[in-house]
Amino acid sequence: MSCPSANKTLRDLGNDLEKDMPAMMQKHKIKPEVVLHLDPGHKIVWVLEAASAEGVRDFMYDSGLSRWNDFEFYMASSLDEVTSWVQHLPTIW
Questions:
Q1: 3-state secondary structure of 69
Q2: Which residue of 15, 28, 49, 72 lies most exposed, with the fewest beta carbons within 10 A?
């Protein structure tokens, strides 16, 4: 698939998805924190708070978002969390 601006069918799918998204996010215990469109790269970056990585994956399949171009997701931690973990690691030099 491609961008919802490409044709009427894709635009209608995008509009329907936008209406259905809150209920699907609630079902999978997902809360959007940040949603950005990267110009002109034609990519969307979402920062989500979720109960599990599996919940994000299942949301992508259930919502149909996985059929829109590429889909990648990464688990993330705050810099404070990472800094705390690093303090417990042995040094390499």
A1: coil
A2: 72
2 located within any domain:
no
**pTM summary value:** 0.76
C-alpha closest to that of 42 among 18, 60, 69, 65: 69
Q: What span, in angstroms and rounded, lies between the C-alpha atoms of 93 and 90?
A: 9
- Number of structural domains (the chain) is 1
DSSP characters over 1-21: ---TTS-HHHHHHHHHHHHHH
* Strand 30-38, strand 43-50: pairing: antiparallel
pLDDT in tens, 11-68: 898 889 889 999 999 999 999 999 998 888 778 899 999 999 999 999 999 988 877 7
